[in-house]
Amino acid sequence: SIIEKQRQELQVLVAELKDHDRELNDMVAVHRRQFLEWANDRQKILTLAERCSLLDNELKGRNEIIKSLTKRLKLIESHQSDSKTTLENTQQKFKELSQKVADVILHCRGLEEENQSLHCSVLELSAKTGQLQAREQELLTMLKLKDDYINEFTSKFKKLESALLAAKAEQFSLNKEKEDLRLRLKELVIEANELKDDLCEKKKENNKQQEEIIHLKQENVFLKNELAHDVENAKRKDQLLQFAKSKQARTDAELSSLRQIYIKQQRDLQFLHVSLESSQEQRQ
User: Which positions are tagged coiled coil (predicted)?
Assistant: First the structure.
């Protein structure tokens, strides 16, 4: 009866050992599956970390590009302000030259009017000279009678002749001054045309710079939008990484508890083996 009882106990212990073995196999399978999931999660985390580092490098490069574009934009804006200042100075100089040209034209008109009046005076003097010549003829007829009158009219004639010479000299100087003013007027017109051409070139250059500034501003806005999109993606990836880290922490905790259970079951199994050996020794 004792041996039968021990056999029954041994059968119960063997059944319990089989159940424990089955449970251990299930736990090992679960542990392997969790280990594989943990390995996959770890690989995903490493991949995400690598992609995050690549995105950080790309973000730094984009920031450098944006800084260089911002510096270039500031430089172009300074050039544009300089061009605007040059353009304003050129316009002011053009206005001054236009005013000078208008003044020279008015002066030329005044000189022409004065020349016309002097020409009329010369004609009048010529007429007077003809009259005086006629009068001289009359006086020559009267010369024989009155020498005093001859001397007086001769002196008057000389005075009129000197006045005529002075008027001719003045007319020559006025003509020369008029010619100089005409030449100066041509030079001013040529200079004004050159300034107009220079002004047109400056306007074209200013328009090109404004188009380039608009293009750079559009590119800057596009890069800012892309940077915001990349930052948002990086935030999402950080969130995924945090979720993965929390999942890994939970997995580590479960693995630690399973290890403790496994160690406890190993101890129980060793105790059962010792009990079985002792029972077999007693039976022997």
Answer: 150-226
